[in-house]
């Protein structure tokens, strides 16, 4: 399985943007890049996914490097509710999403 | 509701007892997953059901664990002769499309199991 590398933690101030990096140097051509987040005491929730092009939705933006070996999840204006563990995951032919340790995001008021 | 429903939300049991955890996926979702999350840890894949295909049981930690999915809908995860190391939050997820095609997983709130 292609693996991802994320920082263990990041801090941000409320209403400021948050850029969460993810390295996936062994990504294959058919792997999608998925982002999920898990708020305290809840199940994970989908944030965004992409293949090659940058993606935007109501929650976040996903910027994918041209060589696809890295990507960045962008939260445009962090709120206290965005404090969570963020998981960057690759999916290919294997239908199982493997959740690593993720990045714990702390948002300061 | 329209989301993935799991029950019970909390279960406390004594070591050696059997437990059953239930998952009701989103209507129409053909794929169903069970994951386990121990305190402070990441998610551990347990089992995957896709339509009428044979399930992928490769993540089940021992033969005390089993799961079934009836009628392509509701799933039950059974743990026999529970041990203290089975204590965790058991998460169920369903999806409409395969994740390899960009499908999105919808998770339930989980069932917290505590084995005394």
What is this structure's SSE topology?
The complex is a heterodimer of chains A (109) and B (116).
Chain A: E1 9-13, E2 18-23, E3 32-38, E4 45-50, E5 55-56, E6 61-64, E7 70-75, E8 84-91, E9 103-108
Parallel strand pairs in A: 1-9
Antiparallel strand pairs in A: 2-7, 3-4, 3-8, 5-6, 6-7, 8-9
Chain B: E1 5-7, E2 10-13, E3 19-24, E4 31-37, E5 43-50, E6 65-69, E7 75-79, E8 88-95, E9 106-107, E10 111-115
Parallel strand pairs in B: 2-10
Antiparallel strand pairs in B: 1-3, 3-7, 4-5, 4-8, 6-7, 8-9, 8-10
Throw out a few tags for this protein.
heterodimer, A: 109 residues, mainly beta, 5-stranded mixed β-sheet, 4-stranded antiparallel β-sheet, 9 strands, B: 116 residues, 6-stranded mixed β-sheet, 10 strands, globular
Write up this protein.
The complex is a heterodimer of chains A (109) and B (116). Chain A is mostly beta strands. Helix content of chain A is 0%, strand content 46%. Chain A has strands at 9-13, 18-23, 32-38, 45-50, 55-56, 61-64, 70-75, 84-91, 103-108. A 5-stranded mixed sheet of chain A has the order 1-9-8-3-4, with no helix packed on it. Chain A starts with 8 loop residues before the first strand and ends with a strand. With 116 residues, chain B is mostly beta strands. In chain B, strands 2, 4, 5, 8, 9 and 10 form a 6-stranded mixed sheet that branches. Chain B has a 4-stranded antiparallel sheet with strand order 1-3-7-6, with no helix packed on it. Chain B has strands spanning 5-7, 10-13, 19-24, 31-37, 43-50, 65-69, 75-79, 88-95, 106-107, 111-115. Chain B is 0% helix and 46% strand. Chain B is globular, with a radius of gyration of 14 Å.
């Amino acid at each position: 399985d292609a693996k991802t590398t994320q920082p263990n933690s990041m801090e941000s101030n409320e209403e400021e943007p948050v850029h969460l990096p993810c390295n996936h140097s062994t990504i294959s051509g058919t792997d999608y890049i998925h982002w999920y987040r898990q708020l305290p005491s809840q199940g994970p929730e989908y944030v965004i996914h992409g293949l090659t092009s940058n993606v935007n939705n109501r929650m976040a933006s996903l910027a994918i490097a041209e060589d696809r070996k890295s990507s960045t999840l962008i939260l445009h204006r962090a709120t206290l509710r965005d404090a969570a563990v963020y998981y960057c995951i690759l999916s290919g032919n294997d239908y199982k999403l493997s959740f690593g340790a993720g990045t714990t995001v702390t948002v300061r008021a | 509701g329209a989301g993935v429903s799991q029950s019970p939300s909390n279960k406390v049991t004594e070591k050696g007892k059997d437990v059953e955890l239930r998952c009701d996926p989103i209507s129409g979702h053909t794929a169903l997953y069970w994951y386990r999350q121990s305190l402070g840890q990441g998610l551990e894949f347990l089992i995957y059901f896709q339509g009428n295909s044979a399930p992928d049981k490769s993540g089940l930690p021992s033969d005390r664990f089993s799961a079934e999915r009836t009628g392509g809908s509701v799933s039950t995860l059974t743990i026999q002769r529970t041990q203290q190391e089975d204590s965790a939050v058991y998460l169920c997820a369903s999806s409409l499309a395969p994740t390899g095609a960009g499908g999105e997983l919808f998770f339930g709130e989980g069932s917290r199991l505590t084995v005394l």
